[in-house]
Amino acid sequence: MRNILFELKEGLLIALRAIRANKIRSALTMLGIFIGITVVVLMSTAIKGIDNSFQKGISALGTDVLYIDKWAWFTNQEWWKLRNRRNIDMEDYEKFKELAKLPLAVAPVTSSRQTIKYKDRRIDDVVLNGSNSDYVKTTNFTFDQGRFYSEIESNASRQVAVLGSDVAKNLFPRGDALDKTIKIGGANYKVVGVLDEQGSSILGSYNPDNQAFIPIGTIFKNFISHRRNSITINVRAQNPAMIEETKAEAIGVMRKIRGLKYDEEDDFTVNQQEALMEQYNSVVGVIKIAGLFITGLSLFVGAIGIMNIMFVSVRERTREIGIRKAIGAKKRTILAQFLLESSTICLVGGAVGLLAAVLLSMVVDQFIPTSVQIDAVVIAFVVALLTGVLSGFAPAYMAAKLDPVESLRYE
Amino acid sequence: MNIINIEHIAKVYEVGLEKVHALRDVSLKIDKNEYVAIMGPSGSGKSTLMNMLGCLDTPTSGVYDFKGESVSTMTDNDLAKIRNKEIGFVFQTFNLLPRSDALHNVELPLVYAGMSYSDRREKAKQALIDVGLGDRMHHKPNELSGGQRQRVAVARALVTQPSIILADEPTGNLDSKTGEEIMGLFQELHEKGNTIILVTHEEYIAEHAARIIRLRDGLIEKDERVESRKVLNTNSASE
């Protein structure tokens, strides 16, 4: 054991001498590994970051919520078939609420995009949700200020609004939104509540942070015709384990309400975020593999660079190898010397690459979310070391195998 | 006591389809503290014999015992060990590592012997002082003259206190004055009890030795004591 450590230490010193003796060449070789490790780590932190962000966003929606809708989030059916389905209306909702026994909460939802103003500040194209006071029970919302609108306000279709955190921040930079009167589409609304930050930017306008909430009667009165528009029924299960049962019951109840015969297809869809997750994985999964493959290629090119240089280096140092062998270097000593040289180049390149990746990911984080994980750091080092050993092995083996007599004669 | 005992060794190289008999049938014994010159024209097999003696190569047939151990059957690793501990090489072209200073060149065999840093530094410094280069330790080979380079090589050969010193045309790349200095150094080493084997094709160099073995066509032509041995005033060597 002491011997191995001794040989490693001496081999490393010899390798460092060789690297220092060929500064430019070593630096250029390192550059290949540096770029490879940088892009691989950057790619993996970006993937991890997007994953995390999506998970966070989606869990803000609640993993135990079903969305009964005329439209399916993901489907193989042609869109016109879905379009020809009957609308889901408030009557369906009332019946559903009465008949479904399993849900923790049920709420009708419809939405429209509107401009919201406060004094000279305005935000265009905000998703404005209309629902009743039960809506908040179908979410995990927490409040920064105030509360959700009450049953009385909801039933009376009052002009009250609850704002998502980003909407509130934009309209009221000083954070004093509560009880202020805002204008939505020309009418006045009183702000009764402001949400805490909920989701993540990756959900875009589906992020509750960018939305506003008013009573459903109010939205029908002011913005959309309730004859022409289909609503969504949000159904929250008692707990995530009950979601399948709740879904089965919901389908049964909806078929009954809609008067469907046993041989008729459902004319509604029960959506759940699992489908969103699956869709995400199927799209992002491909991007992930492609991304890692392409960036992996650049690392591979770097490895070829190392191997190439090491072959040249062995050729160039044939005589040195002969001398070392003549004065007592064993095969494995020479092998170790060259392996340590290529590994050192890779590890240094890898370390610098990692550092660059961490710094760059801070920049990239401004545009897409990234997340540097400790496992990415470990993997980067292992990959760098493996690259060094694997790409150095063939040249090192060639060096170790050289015949001392012939290599001493080599000019 | 015999350090080297060679019986009927032969070495055959295959060059393409042709077989080249570098050594046909050579037997010789070399005792401790002998000073032997191996001579012969090019193609006589003296380089092959020297590689064989230096354990850089193994014979195709025959027996080679080094201090009673059979070299002919050794593995590469064992050969490396013997070269490291028992043999000190001095080459015509010096064969120093160009990018390392004199001290590192001299300590390298001790690195391969597994000696600790402080011990080997100590020994390497002493060896350089012994060959008169105490003030050139941190010079690189290209900052040294030919004679100085060969002295570094001699120091490297000596530093492990080997059983034999094997010198292959050690003066071949030096002018005659410097060559004489190096031969003085060898004479001194011999007087201190070292065993020296010198390969050369120059008669006046070989005359420094006490015994001359002449090779021709892979056979020993003559193995004789030197009657009128050239002896130098060796004070110059340690200046």
Short key terms for the protein model shown above:
heterodimer; A: 411 residues; alpha+beta; 2 domains; six-stranded mixed barrel; 13 helices; 10 strands; 16% strand; elongated; B: 239 residues; alpha/beta; Rossmann fold; six-stranded mixed beta sheet; four-stranded antiparallel beta sheet; 29% strand; globular
Any overview of this molecule?
- Chain A is of the alpha+beta class and about 400 residues long.
- Chain A has 2 domains: about 1-55 and about 280-410, no CATH class; about 65-270, no CATH class.
- Chain A has helices spanning about 1-20, 25-60, 80-85, 90-100, 150-155, 165-170, 215-220, 245-260, 275-315, 320-325, 330-365, 375-400, 405-410, and strands spanning about 65-70, 105-120, 120-130, 145, 160-165, 180-185, 185-195, 210-215, 230-235, 270.
- The longest helix of chain A is centred in the C-terminal third of the chain and has 44 residues, at about 275-315.
- The radius of gyration of chain A is 32 Å and the shape is elongated.
- The two termini of chain A are about 40 Å apart.
- The model of chain A has no long low-confidence stretch (mean pLDDT about 90).
- Chain B has helices at about 45-55, 75-85, 100-115, 115-130, 145-160, 175-190, 205, and strands at about 1-15, 20-30, 35-40, 60-65, 70, 85-90, 165-170, 195-200, 210-215, 220-225.
- Chain B has about 240 residues and is an alpha/beta fold.
- In chain B, the strands form 2 sheets. In chain B, strands 6-7-8-3-9-10 form a 6-stranded mixed beta sheet, sandwiched between helices.
- Chain B is globular and about 50 Å long.
- Chain B has a single domain, classed as Rossmann fold, CATH 3.40.50.300.
- The interface of A and B includes residues 3, 7, 17, 331 and 332 of A.
